[in-house]
Design goal:
This protein is mostly beta strands and 702 residues long. It contains seven helices and 43 strands. The chain is elongated, with a radius of gyration of 29 Å. The protein starts with a helix and ends in a 12-residue tail after the last strand. The N terminus and C terminus are likely disordered.
Length: 702
């Protein structure tokens, strides 16, 4: 008796070992068995009967055995070992109990296969929407669908067994699912919908409908097609389904590598950058950028070459040097560009205008617009340095808090002890009479002076304040952008370092993406994120006081040379900590360094072969230098967040340092490179080019 118990276990072990070998497949002609499971506890598709019959016929024609059931008791570890793949055919609702879920999870992750058809995708009104593991396998969830209609499916991989036979543009009738997010970047997309070809698409133009991926040692293949009864007599769909079953069963090879939207291409413009800091794109397409050690370069995208056009002597530390560049709105005529740099021999940062003579920066033409006094006792301090113009010719300048961040345990930098000014951001960020820890706004005049535009935080003449201040209460507003349509200011705020909250000190550290519709106080060092307050803290006695009041913040520090009563604190637009964010899960976890880029507005009249498509209209681009992602934040007509998605999630961005929209409607991105401290040989300037919707990726051509 014992022998008969052991043999099935040995057979199962051999099966699992065979299927756990990466890339191994059986010969296409080798017989195998599959289980078709079509249990429904919610909506039941009339096409299920047609589907079972069609799959049985495919089995006869292609030498595999088909067993069909709606009895979930078939999901035991021993029984599942009999099948090379399981097909979930328009299943719906909660179809497995906890024990059965455990068996199926073990089956799939240890080398089994799942082919999901239509409603088999995860979702609360699709399949197993309350089972987190199942949701993770599909990398998205069903959201909604519209009426059945004809649409165009764009085939992205024409080497895959399930799509190789299909035309590049496949026109067919089905019920088209919208998902909560595109799974792209986590799955290998095989086919996607052209949202312009039907009504009701809600995925912003990136609308995968068939994909595959590795699931542990197993294989998952999914198609959103197959709602209609007619599908199961359609030759193209049946071959699509057959290929998917064969991929799930491991008898046909497949590329499971996560891929990108083939409409986009990353073009390298310059590989010569070293510690690049900020980029500026002229209206004629020339790209200017600065390097931390004082170098100004000009890149010609047409020839993908760059040359040095000037070099400034700068005070060199990790947080100082040549930090920012922007071009005058009338640059093509007046040839003025603006640099933010740390001069040698004087404790200040400067914003200065220079004139470009031919392709050479005329250093003698310097006009200093602003001198920003700084302390250099503590060299590792936040500096900022980003600059940009709005549509009215106002110049915005970001400045860091210029205090040492390492002595406050990652909480509020507010050490008021004598001689500790370099550790007290109440003397900088929260000081209305200081230019540090701010975003300044001035209007440059032709003679090199600046005027104060109306609407800044403190009107000219306000006692003990600086009229240049537009936003105060910043820690390190490292990269900024202005929406050209409405003048709203965006910036990434690199936040404090506490890993977790502490009752006697305050909240954990958060990075922020901020939106300023008007001048205001954004809270540092008294508040963070959605105005989470820090507690007053006596660094000498190590005792805590009351939390600061966001509605009525008071700055009583002896290092504050401005008014004690500050403007009310404004909450962050987006905020995320070291740990995974429940509110903004796409931000991920780990080290943080938030930055904000431009807002894109689609212009139909713009004649450019590479401008971003209409589905990115009214989108704010934000990015993180540490986590190396870019997020596309869709804005609604009230400038609130309407949606958020990873931009090109499978593309490597090596610490994106700056991002700008060019006059051609394309994104220009500066990559710092792999290593934190710089000197990277893989630093580069790149452009994201949009290609026509009909263009296929290189591997798709037959």
């Amino acid at each position: 008796m014992k022998l008969f118990r052991v043999l099935p276990c040995l057979a199962g072990l051999l099966w699992l070992m065979t299927n756990s070998m990466p890339g191994q497949t059986l010969a296409a002609s080798a017989p195998f068995s599959i289980l078709v499971f079509s249990k429904t506890t919610m909506y039941r598709h009339a096409s299920i009967t047609n589907g079972i019959a069609a799959i049985r016929k495919l089995g006869v024609e292609n030498e595999f055995t088909v067993e069909a059931t709606e009895d979930s008791s078939a999901f035991t570890s021993e029984n599942l070992m009999r099948y090379r793949a399981v097909v979930f055919l328009s299943t719906s609702g909660d179809i497995l109990d906890e024990t059965q879920q455990t068996a199926f999870r073990s089956y799939l992750t240890n080398g089994g296969g799942l082919a999901g058809v239509h409603a088999a995708v995860a979702g609360k009104v699709a399949t197993e929407g309350t089972w987190p593991w199942y949701v993770e396998q599909f990398c998205t969830e069903f959201d909604n669908h519209k009426a059945i209609e004809q649409a165009t499916v764009r085939i992205e991989d024409r080497t895959n067994a399930s799509t190789a036979h299909l035309p590049a543009q496949w026109s067919r009738t089905d019920e088209w699912y919208n998902f909560t997010a595109s799974p792209r970047g986590k799955v290998h997309v095989l086919a996607a919908l052209d949202e312009k070809s039907f009504h009701g698409g809600t995925m912003g133009g990136d609308h995968p409908v068939a994909w595959c991926r590795k699931a542990g040692q197993g294989r998952l293949w999914y198609t959103a097609l197959g709602h209609t009864e007619a599908s199961y007599s359609e030759p193209n769909f049946l071959q699509h389904l057959l290929g998917g079953i064969q991929i799930a069963a491991g008898v046909k090879p497949a590329d499971f590598t996560p891929n990108e939207d083939p409409r986009f291409k990353k073009t390298v413009l310059d590989r010569s950058a070293c510690d690049p800091m900020e980029i500026a794109v002229a209206k004629d397409g020339r790209v200017f950028y600065v390097e931390r050690l004082g170098v100004v370069k000009l890149c010609q995208p047409a020839t993908q070459t760059a040359r040095l056009i000037g070099k400034l002597a700068v005070f060199e530390t990790l947080d100082n040097g040549l930090l920012g560049i922007t071009l005058d709105p009338d640059f093509l005529n007046n040839r003025w560009l603006y640099l933010f740099y740390s001069p040698v021999g004087v404790s200040e940062n400067r914003v200065a205008r220079f004139t470009l003579m031919g392709d050479t920066l005329d250093l003698a033409s310097e006009k200093v617009l602003l001198r920003i006094p700084v302390q250099r006792e503590q060299p590792i301090c936040h500096t900022g340095g980003s600059m940009t113009f709005d549509a009215r010719g106002n110049l915005y300048i970001s400045t860091g808090d210029n205090v040492n961040p390492f002595a406050s345990d990652g909480f509020s930098a507010s050490d008021e002890r004598p001689g500790r000014a370099p550790w007290d951001a109440q003397g900088t960020s929260a000081n209305p009479n200081d230019l540090r820890g701010k975003i300044l706004r001035v209007h440059p005049d032709p003679d090199g002076s600046v005027a104060i535009p109306p609407g800044n935080l403190f009107p000219p003449g306000t006692p003990n304040t600086r009229p240049e201040i537009y936003v105060m209460g910043c820690r390190n507003p490292f990269r900024i952008g202005v929406d050209a349509r409405n003048g709203f200011l965006y910036w990434g705020e690199v936040g404090p370092d506490a890993q977790a909250p502490k009752a006697e000190r305050g909240p954990a550290g958060f990075d922020e993406i901020n939106q300023a519709r008007a001048a205001g106080n954004f809270g540092w060092p008294h508040f963070v994120a959605d105005n989470k307050p820090y507690r007053r803290y006596d660094f000498a006695t190590k005792t805590s006081g009351e939390p600061w009041d966001a509605a009525h913040p008071i700055n009583s520090s002896p290092n504050n040379t401005g008014p004690r009563e500050l403007p009310p604190a404004q909450p962050a637009f987006i905020a995320y900590p070291y740990s995974a964010s429940t509110r903004f899960p796409l931000t991920g976890s780990g080290g943080r360094s938030a930055m904000a880029g431009p807002v894109y507005h689609f212009e139909a009249a713009l004649k450019s072969p590479r401008k971003l498509p209409a589905d990115f209209d009214h989108t704010l681009f934000v990015y993180d230098w540490m986590r190396s992602w870019i997020l596309a934040v869709k804005l609604d007509d009230q400038e609130r967040i309407a949606g958020m998605k990873r931009f090109l999630p499978a593309t490597e961005f090596k610490r994106p340092m700056d991002m700008e929209l060019g006059p051609d409607g394309a994104l220009y991105i500066m990559e710092w490179g792999t290593q934190y401290n710089g000197g990277n040989t893989d630093a580069q300037i790149v452009r994201i080019d949009y290609t026509a919707d009909t263009e296929l990726p290189p591997h798709a051509a037959k």
